[in-house]
Amino acid sequence: MTPASPQELAKALAEVGYLADEGLAIAGHLALRLGRPLFLEGDAGVGKTAFAQALAEATGAHFVRLQCYEGLDASQALYDWDFPRQILHLRTVEAAAVAAGDKPDTAALEASLYDRRFLIARPLLQALERTPSVLLVDEIDRADDEFEAFLLEVLADAAITIPELGRIAAERPPLTVLTSNRTREVHDALKRRCLYHWVEHPTVEREVAILRTRLPEVTERLAADVAEAIRRMRQLDLIKPPGVAEALDWASALTALGADGLDRDVAAATLGAVLKYREDIDRVRESEPWRT
Amino acid sequence: MADVTAVLAGFAETLRHAGVEAVGERVEAMIAAAGALQVGSPQDVYWAGRLTLCAEPDDLPVYDAAFTAYFGGRLPARVPDPQPAARSRPAALFGSVPGGTASEPDAATPVAASDAEVLRQRDIAALSVAERDEVRRLVALLAPSTAPRPSRRHRPARAGGVDPARTVRRMLRHFGEPTRLARRDHRDKPRRLVLLVDVSGSMAPYADALLRFAHAAGRRRPTLTEAFTLGTRLTRVTRALRHRDPDAALRAAGGAIADWHGGTRLADGLKAFLDRWGQRGTARGAVVVLCSDGWERGDPALLAAQMARLSRLAYRLVWVNPHRGKPGYAPLVAGMAAALPYLDEFVAGHSLGALEQLVGVISRA
Q1: Contact A34 B25 (CB under 8 A)
Q2: Distances in Å between the alpha carbon of B124 and those of B84, B120, B128?
Q3: What does pLDDT average to over chain A?
Q4: Where is A160: in which H helix or E strand?
Q5: What is the 3-state secondary structure (H, E, C) of B176-236?
Q6: 3-state secondary structure A99-110
């Protein structure tokens, strides 16, 4: 099921609990329509990963995630042969042949070793085999740059060739979402193929709506207080300005303490849910952004 | 539709002049995106262009300005950019030799007259035009590269841990009989090199040579080198310095730097670097080289706080101060004194010889 317009996509996303703004809805819509990967950047915790998950849920597609890290290679990203099982198979056939008293058929044996059932599908292959699917390539900047060239090749063809098995092509290319934290420049060749979107922090109204949707137990007043305090914190020039993820954490922490609104004591007691640097906590304690 | 295409292509042209790389495939993508949205409102055009033509946050303000200028329309409401962009209009800042003013000793002095070894040790600020050209040529030949560290990737090796995949593959070739164990070891990879060059007025005689040094480093390890300039603001020049030709690269960098020969606010620049790049990973485990004379207009305590942050992230922190090469120099400038406790190395960068030594410092593990 593919929504016909950005508005419909936004509606479908809202139904699964993700409130996208106009830009992100258009980006998602174009990615679906043009079959281009979507390259998302933005501060940590603005909901880049959650967007891919919501997109999969909203369009009824499988969700496949490839978390990138340094040293990621084809055997972890694409496929690998299940060597222990292959050896077990080999030994079993051999033993059976010896017991039956005939010679094993080497050609057939060899062919049976490279059967699909001995192939372990890693995320990229999973995304090609399970259609429709949304493939999230998370934090691409963490992988080595050699990996990008390799990824580009797989994405361009939506198919891979396994020497022992042949070509495996996707019925429908997966919708790919790439995220980056900009720890290094991603190659132009990869970016050129993608739609690029910078995900902003939500407005106060949207943040309230997100808090209310994701955490139904949070009261209207608390959601409004938290959203406003978070907005002020983002203007404080902190080392790590809080994202939506931190706002959600904070609101659930406050609710767990039975708070109905923000006041100095309860805010100070729960700051650790929002701010992760001592300097930031000191700064916020000083300016008290929750005071109205 | 032909009209729309022409209008969009014209817009891409405008954007290119403004410094956004809106070329070829990107323009085609924009036209396809506009088609898919069945462009009705200015909003659609805005997003169709922005999603396809821009490639980094720095492009967005330029894009917004170009969009308003070209279509004259209102922009869709947007949350103000959390990171004010630091890009300027391209300007011919490199028209003249930086620092080469009327006080130039003798522009006609031939290089041949100065012995290469003498030239190597001479202060770059005191060179004639011809000598400086020679130094530039020699700086371009330097190949700074950081020392390798073990990466997460493996390579086959004679000794080391057992490589299960290769061992079992080898067994398969022998019909499941165990044979020799295959071993593997970590592959080496150089560390990232980050160069922060002060381009304020007081550094004017040296900034050109130091940026050329950054260019040489980028040529050596294109994916593992990042270069920024500090003045009254932070400018990333990695992209601009990617040109093959050093002169073209420096011209491009000059176009990107708005605060060339201005004042210095090191603490602010460093903070911007750490917030936007360093903390996210650019400085993590990297060799960071800061080139500045330490003249700081702001409060030295703020600089010390940022230096502390940087030293916690970086693998090694090197400060290059051209004045250190002068006889009788002592780090008395407030900014320099504040930064000293956080440095791993404190070196001079005033001459070709000093830059060659810097190559050695960078490559030391």
Answers
A1: no
A2: 35, 9, 9
A3: 89
A4: strand A159-162
A5: CCCCCCCEEEEEEEECCEEEEEECCHHHHHHHHHHHHHHHHHHHHCHHHEEEEEECCCEEE
A6: HHCCCCCHHHHH
Convert the pLDDT of each residue in A39-74 to its tens digit: 999 888 888 999 999 999 999 999 999 999 988 888
Q: What is the mean pLDDT of residues A78-83?
A: 89
- Chain-centroid distance of CA B244 in Å reads 15
Closest by alpha carbon to B81, among B279, B276, B339, B267?
A: B276
Residue pairs spanning A and B at CB distance below 8 A: 126
The set of residues, in sequence order, having a beta carbon less than 8 Å from that of B272 and lying 6+ positions away, is B86, B233, B234
Sequence ranges of the domains in chain A? 6-72+130-199, 79-118, 204-283
pLDDT at position A38, please? 96
Structure tokens at A33: 């329509």
> What would the pLDDT profile of B314-338 be if each residue is shown by its tens digit?
999 999 999 888 888 888 888 898 9
State which fold the B140-145+191-363 domain adopts: Rossmann fold (3.40.50)
User: Given an 8 Å threshold on Cβ–Cβ distance, is A184 in contact with B171?
Assistant: no
Report ipTM (2 d.p.): 0.72
Decide if A75 touches B, using CB distance below 8 A.
yes
Q: List all residues 6 or more positions away from B214 whose beta carbon is below 8 Å from its beta carbon.
A: B195, B197, B225, B227, B237, B241
B24: closest chain A residue by CA: A192
Mutate: best of A2, A76, A87, partner B, most B CBs <10 A: A87
* Domain A6-72+130-199 is found in CATH 3.40.50.300: yes
* Residue numbers in A near B21 (CB within 8 A): 188
Q: Which of B51, B82, B171 sits opposite A195 (nearest CB)?
A: B51
pLDDT for A233-264, tens place per residue? 999 888 888 999 999 999 999 999 998 888 88
Q: For the whole model, what pTM was predicted? A: 0.76
Residue A19 predicted with pLDDT over 80: yes
A152 Cβ under 8 Å from any chain B Cβ: no
What order of strands is seen across the sheet that includes strand B225-230?
A: B234-236, B225-230, B193-198, B287-291, B316-320, B345-347
Identify the pLDDT of residue A51.
95
Interchain proximity B281–A193, CB inside 8 Å: no
What are the tokens at A166? Answer: 């042949």
State CA A290 to chain mean position distance: 32
> Which of A34, A44, A87 minimises the CB distance to B171?
A87
Q: CB of B20 within 8 A of CB of B66?
A: yes
CA distance A151 to A180: 14
Q: Which of A57, A193, A75, A86 has its CA nearest to residue A124?
A: A75
Any idea where the domains of chain B sit in the sequence? 2-71, 140-145+191-363, 154-187
Contact A75 B280 (CB under 8 A): no
Q: State how far residue A221 is from chain B, nearest Cα, in angstroms.
A: 23
Task: Tell me which residue in A6, A181, A201 faces B79 most closely, judged by beta carbons.
Answer: A201
